[in-house]
Amino acid sequence: MNSLENYLQNLKSKGFHFGEDVIGFIYFGKQYTGASDELTNVAIEYTLKAQRKFDGSFYISLLETFSNNGICNREEAVRYVNNQKLLGT
Fold it and tell me: Cα torsion at 65, 71, 75, 79 (round to 10°)?
């Protein structure tokens, strides 16, 4: 599992440059929902895939959905996103 900090550094190395406001919001969402680094990383990944950019409301909604559905790890989160067709596929 990648820490959130490492995940954000990895995204930066791939060309995703988030401002301090976005990074602060990412950490706020993680704390607000009590999400693990693993679920936070999945929420960021699928926010970027679905929205083609970072969308704070989509990100928070995903984190809340994971929490409300008892999703605890990446495998469960990916399965949920795919089952709900959140990416339109």
Answer: -50
Tens-digit pLDDT profile for residues 17-71: 899 999 999 999 999 999 999 999 999 999 999 999 999 999 999 999 999 999 9
Long-range CB pairs of 31-35 (<8 Å, 24+ gap) are 32/60, 32/63, 33/60, 33/63, 33/64, 33/66, 33/67, 34/67, 35/63, 35/66, 35/67
What is the number of other CB atoms lying within 10 angstroms of the CB of residue 17? 8
What phi and psi, each to the nearest 5 degrees, are found at residue 56? -60, -40
